[in-house]
Amino acid sequence: MAELTVTDLHLTYGDNPILKGVSLTLDRGEVVSLLGPSGSGKTTLLRAVAGLEVPHQGSIRIGDKVVFDGAAGNDIPAEKRNLGLVFQSYALWPHKTVFDNVAYGLKLRKISGAEIQTRVTKALEQLSLGHLAARFPHQLSGGQQQRVALARALVYNPPVILLDEPLSNLDAKLREEARAWLRELIVTMQLSALCVTHDQGEALAMSDRILLLNNGRIEQQGTPEQMYSEPGTLFTADFMGSNNRLNGRVTEVGGGHALIEGEGWRLWGAAKASAKAGQDGTAMIRLERIRLAAGPGDNRLQAALTTSMYLGDKWEHLFHLGGARLRAYGDRPLGRGNHWLEVPREALWIF
Ligand SMILES: Nc1ncnc2c1ncn2[C@@H]1O[C@H](COP(=O)(O)OP(=O)(O)OP(=O)(O)O)[C@@H](O)[C@H]1O
Ligand SMILES: [Mg+2]
Q1: Which ligand 1 atom minimizes the distance to the CA of 46?
Q2: Residue 319 to residues 73, 288, 292, 322: CA-CA distances in angstroms?
Q3: Tens digits of residue pLDDT in 274-333
Q4: Is the CB of 281 under 6 A from ligand 1?
Q5: Is the shortest distance between the CB of 198 and ligand 1 below 6 Å?
Q6: 105-114, 237-246, 270-279: the lowest-pLDDT one
Q7: Distances in whole angstroms, Cα of residue 40 to Cα of each of 193, 207, 344
Q8: Could you tell me if 207 and 195 are in contact, meaning their C-beta atoms sit under 8 angstroms apart?
Q9: Closest C-alpha to ligand 1, atom 4
Q10: pLDDT tens by residue, 58-93
Q11: Nearest to 55 by CA among 38, 63, 40, 67
Q12: 47 CA from centroid of ligand 1 (Å)
């Protein structure tokens, strides 16, 4: 049974529609990420599930309990939904110790002192925070504060935890370590988590499934591999990776393939549903799929090198071709002038 089921949720601020019919399920032990550009409605959806915003249509079920039903006028308040919440800002209480931050919610629920002691100690240990129990938030690093916020959510043993950009306050390196650690924690504790992020790398790494939101609607959902390798639309393709994009005219479509032509280039690729012969189209290929080639050949194009960047494990080369810019990885520096680039047909999507 799904731990969380959202059906056809609509939510409006004033007369501004924000969620326009969103449905999703979250199964036991699953991590689902809500991904999407700024303003697409991710936080709003999470807050609606938490009971902090009131939708005007649709329903929300946690386990087998209906917590919101627009048609029936059902709306169970946030504190009775028994969810673990971790917000974008950790919002720790500055004048309480780590222990008291984690214990606070249990005290409000009138749980006995002995049980609070046991549960808080266990939550702190699970998050490797035991030795920091007596400290105050300002005496902790960003990563430690983030763990306290998580401990505070987990201490209730909630069936579902909701995380809004849980790693956004951490710097890049710490973030990468924290996402591995968080994923491991969720999986080993068999938690079910709905996690908001606008970072596609984080969503790919953290999730069992990704829901991509576009302006209040689900653009596409699937496993990380499906979202990355089988995008249905230009929006999904563009959002899920680092891409090269060429605008041109589609001149042939058939048998799942399409030919697209621009100034000084013509390329075959996989035809997506939106590609129509005789119309303008967009060709897209992931940066890691385009290759430097020694000379002319099938599905190759010639472009002039603008500059190169050393990335540590590889080089990233920037080219221009007419008005378009192209980027490709390589394992060595390149000389000035024109170079051949191979665009494998199966890796080029034509929209
Ligand atoms: N309380 C509010 N009143 C009116 N409009 C709001 C309110 N909260 C959010 N909005 C609007 O709703 C839309 C969705 O906001 P939301 O916070 O859900 O976006 P988000 O996807 O979480 O973006 P981000 O990645 O920037 O956090 C935005 O256009 C925002 O301006
Ligand atoms: Mg947000």
Answers
A1: 18
A2: 58, 15, 11, 10
A3: 999 999 999 999 999 999 999 999 999 999 999 999 999 999 999 999 889 999 999 999
A4: no
A5: yes
A6: 105-114
A7: 20, 19, 33
A8: yes
A9: 13
A10: 999 999 999 999 999 999 999 889 898 888 777 899
A11: 67
A12: 11
Four-residue CA torsion sign, 168, 171, 172, 177: negative
What are 237's two structure tokens? 């393709």
Which residue's CA is the closest to the ligand 1 atom numbered 6?
Answer: 13
Pocket of ligand 1 contains residue 18 by CB under 6 Å? yes
For ligand 1, atom 13: residue with the closest CA: 39
Distance from residue 41's CA to the centre of ligand 1 (Å): 6
Span 183-229, pLDDT tens digits: 988 888 888 999 999 899 999 999 999 999 999 999 999 999 999 99
Euclidean distance between CA atoms 40 and 99, whole angstroms: 36
DSSP 251-312: EEEETTEEEEEETTEEEEEEEPTT--TTSEEEEEEEGGG-EEESS--TTEEEEEEEEEEE-S
Q: Is 38 in the pocket of ligand 1 (CB under 6 A)?
A: yes
Distance 39 CA to ligand 1 centre (A): 5
The residue whose CA is least distant from atom 5 of ligand 1 is 13
What's the token pair of residue 331? 């394992």
CA dist., res. 267 & res. 345, Å (int): 8
Q: Distance of CA 116 to CAs 129, 152, 155, Å?
A: 16, 12, 9
User: Token pair for residue 289?
Assistant: 């799929």
Q: Which domains does the chain have, with CATH numbers?
A: 2-234 (3.40.50.300), 242-350 (2.40.50.140)
Task: Give the DSSP H/E element, type plus range, for residue 320.
Answer: strand 315-321
Tokens of 211: 């829901």
What pTM was estimated for this model as a whole?
Answer: 0.90
Atom of ligand 1 nearest to the CA of 198: 25
